Amino acid sequence: MDMIQALIIAILQGATELFPVSSLGHAVVLPAVLHWGINQRSPEFLPFLVMLHFGTGTALLTYFWRDWWAIATGLLGIGDAHRVSESRRVFMLVVIATIPAVIVGFLLEKFVRGLFGAPVIAASFLIVNGLLLLFGERLRGRGTADRHLSTLTRMDAFTIGCWQCTALFPGISRSGATIVGGLLRGINHEGSAHFSFLIATPIIFGATVLEVPKLMHEHVPQGILLMSAIAAVVAGITAFLSTAFLMRYFRQHDSWALNPFAYYCLLAGVISLGVLVLA
To answer: Quick one: CA dihedral 204, 202, 19, 137, positive or negative?
Structure first.
């Protein structure tokens, strides 16, 4: 992998991690479709992707710093009783939503790792992701999804957390799955996206803690370390801009917000699958 390729993947990661189109799916499929010759099963490729996720997580932490500051001060008991109680409630919801992915990710770690080097599988899951987004919008359209994020319950958080587990497969969008989970619990697009981006932060940083040390202990070339760091910064800047755009987008297009992303995933998945199978 050269620097240009790394930066392209970084920009793609920063955008697609928040857009409901699967960053991992694109990171696995794109190099294969473009015949970049990147060994996606090499010891440094997955840690490289996790470094990009670290940049993305930092961007999310920066964008939602008020939420995390409120949670931190609430946990320390700083502020009036109502604010402390609400901050602790939000923290508990984030924890509940995170637990399913942690457990399932631990149990299926070896199996999921093998999928990162399988572009055909990732392309197929991109198609599944598109269908999932259409499914969420269709069912949501039959009911109501007007609840505000402040009405989120523990069962809502747990359900959204279970949907997040599907994103362990490259091609299934974590943000897309959790937003769909929120919609099906009656939360509107903006609230679902907000909570989706909040619970992404501990997952991303948790993966970083597990994977980054491997960059230091698996004889990864020094140039890869520098490349990964630069790419992480680029991914972070892209992710921050993407988050700002999406929060406004979901607020202004609440009735059909996921449909364009669904059609994109279907088209990208079918084309990529055709190229990979026929190549």
So the answer is: positive
